[in-house]
Each structure stands twice: as C-alpha cells, then as structure tokens.
C-alpha cells in the first residue's frame, strides 16, 4: 500500500521545484480573499496609488484570486531578484 505524502511534504517538493527553475523565493497560500481587501480599497480610494491608475482598477479581482482563477484552492507565489 502506497503512503500519501503529507501536505507539508508536498509543499516542500513544490518549493524545491520552483528553486530548481531559478526562482529566489517561493511560498504557498490559500486562494481565499485577502484579509486586507478593505484596507486596499480605502488606500486606492484615497488616491495613495499615485499615478499608477491600474492599481485602482478591478478591486474585486485584486483582492480575491478566485475571481481570476475560479475554483482555485491554493496559490504558488514565486519571486525573482533582478
């Protein structure tokens, strides 16, 4: 009988794979709406985004990954220093 890998083990495998692809940092998180959505909306409503108008567009899309990726449960987020 085959033993299933634990979620922590799967996460470490994903992180290791991302690093082999050249990413400097990698994290995993849920696809739940951002806990900071109200703050973000207030921040953009106050014009704190300056001349970066794109930050104020589609606030629902920017605060809930499931709007862009319906059915998503988890996200893999990678970073690359440049």
Give the termini separation.
46 Å
* Tally of alpha and pi helices: 4
Low-confidence sequence ranges: none
- Label the overall shape: elongated
Chain-averaged pLDDT: 94
Order of strands in the sheet with most strands: 1-2
Question: How would you characterize the largest beta sheet?
Answer: 2 strands, antiparallel
Q: Tell me the β content.
A: 5-15%
Helix content: 25-40%
Rg is 17 Å
Structural class: alpha+beta
Q: How many strand segments? A: 2
What is the chain-wise order of helices and strands?
A: HEHHHE
Please explain how this structure is put together.
With 82 residues, this protein is an alpha+beta fold. Helices cover 39% and strands 15% of the residues. The protein contains four helices and two strands; from the N terminus they run αβαααβ. It has a two-stranded antiparallel sheet with strand order 1-2. The longest helix has 14 residues, at 7-20. The mean pLDDT is 94.
Provide a short characterization of the protein structure.
39% of the residues lie in helices and 15% in strands. With 82 residues, the protein is of the alpha+beta class.
